[in-house]
Amino acid sequence: MNEKQRIQPLSRDAMAYVLAGGRGSRLKELTDRRAKPAVYFGGKTRIIDFALSNALNSGIRRIGVATQYKAHSLIRHMQRGWNFFRPERNESFDILPASQRVSETQWYEGTADAVYQNIDIIEGYAPEYMVILAGDHVYKMDYELMLQQHVNSGADVTVGCLEVPRMEATGFGVMHVNEKDEIIAFVEKPADPPGIPGKPDFALASMGIYVFHTKFLIEALKRDAASDGSSRDFGKDIIPYIVEHGKAIAHRFADSCVRSDFEREPYWRDAGTIDAYWQANIDLTEIVPGLDLYDKSWPIWTYAEITAPAKFVHDDEDRRGSATSSVISGDCIISGSSLNRSLLFTGVRANSYSKLDGAVVLPNVRIGRRAQLRDVVIDHGVTIPEGLVVGEDPELDAKRFRRTETGICLITQSMIDKLDL
């Protein structure tokens, strides 16, 4: 380790590159108008804020974000909430849409190509290390610790990994490692995942987080781009090639997960289905949730809207503005409505005699009088008609809305507009 690395954290010589172009099709209509990283989460943030906040809190001051699918709301959010980086402090924040810079007919063909097409921008900043991140997961992690492991191990690539029960790893890319956490094989969605040495009932699943020396990464990307038949993807092409021809090391999330005194277990969520999205948000209403968003030592940065405080009005026996075990954001008015185990984003209006139980309500929703809503996700800007009942008749709910097998209903304005009320 040279003198420069000893004086300052490795993160100061690193660039975080966030891959935020994916749709997230399993979220169905929630991603009809926005990319998955732009989906709202936790009351006031978007999913991408977690990867960006982790980078910032880890000490990384150069960040690039590659966007592609329906990127407008994502780009607008980053322009509003992440515009505080200053070049005179050697900071940078670049939004990198697929802009046909390499070819007039070529968009980003894969995750690796999304970095390859911007090599000249990366080289212009000359970072010593690259931290490649997925922009669609919810977690808190100190990338500095992963950088240190990468440098100390002499790895060509270090791969962030989750320990998961072995037979739950069938939907992941799985790292087969030896006793030194050296990756000896990479297996994509295996039917029989390899266990961890010493923990045979667990497997190491890829988090889509990779650390490289920049020079090595650029060489790998150029080699892959010149290879016929490559899908231009980190998980399918770049990482397996390095596992076979170089040195790949697994980094365990538990070693760098950031936890407050209230967080008992390492927390990581994909939130990539309607059920998982609903559950991850509803979990935040618990007395001690698995994810502590109140931890000031590791804040989740976002676009902080200027809003009035939340307000509860009316105090009649059957018309009382109240909420129990719920998270209520700014500019919400709970007007004679009762809420239980619900999470409301900014600007929601819940009108008299309505009842919400297990509701995840995105910004600027209007809940009509006497509406009865249970186990729902309501998209941004929806107006719920007076007297609408959801969560009592499964067959009727499935005809009207997007209902999952577990009974969670996704409600959008287009679905409401089709109702015959």
Break the fold down into its secondary structure elements and pairings.
Blueprint: H1 3-7, E1 14-19, E2 40-41, E3 45-46, H2 48-57, E4 62-67, H3 72-81, E5 92-97, H4 111-116, H5 119-125, E6 129-134, E7 138-139, H6 143-153, E8 157-165, E9 173-177, E10 183-188, E11 202-213, H7 214-225, H8 234-245, E12 248-252, E13 268-269, H9 274-282, E14 311-313, E15 315-316, E16 319-320, E17 322-324, E18 327-328, E19 333-335, E20 338-340, E21 343-344, E22 349-350, E23 355-361, E24 366-367, E25 372-378, E26 383-384, E27 389-390, H10 394-400, E28 402-403, E29 409-411, H11 413-417
Parallel strand pairs: 1-4, 1-6, 4-5, 8-12, 14-19, 17-20, 18-21, 19-22, 20-23, 21-23, 22-24, 23-25, 24-26, 25-27, 25-29
Antiparallel strand pairs: 2-3, 6-11, 7-13, 8-11, 9-10, 9-11, 15-16, 28-29
EC number: 2.7.7.27
Family: Belongs to the bacterial/plant glucose-1-phosphate adenylyltransferase family.
Binding site for alpha-D-glucose 1-phosphate: 108, 173, 188-189, 206
What is the 3D form? globular
CATH class of the largest domain: Alpha Beta
Gyration radius (Cα, Å) is 23 Å
Report mean pLDDT, rounded to a whole number. 95
Number of helices: 11
Question: For the report, how would you describe the main beta sheet?
Answer: 9 strands, mixed
For the record, what is the CATH homologous superfamily label of the largest domain?
A: Spore Coat Polysaccharide Biosynthesis Protein SpsA, Chain A
Number of domains: 2
Number of strands: 29
Overall CATH architecture of the largest domain = Alpha-Beta Complex
Low-confidence stretches: 1-5
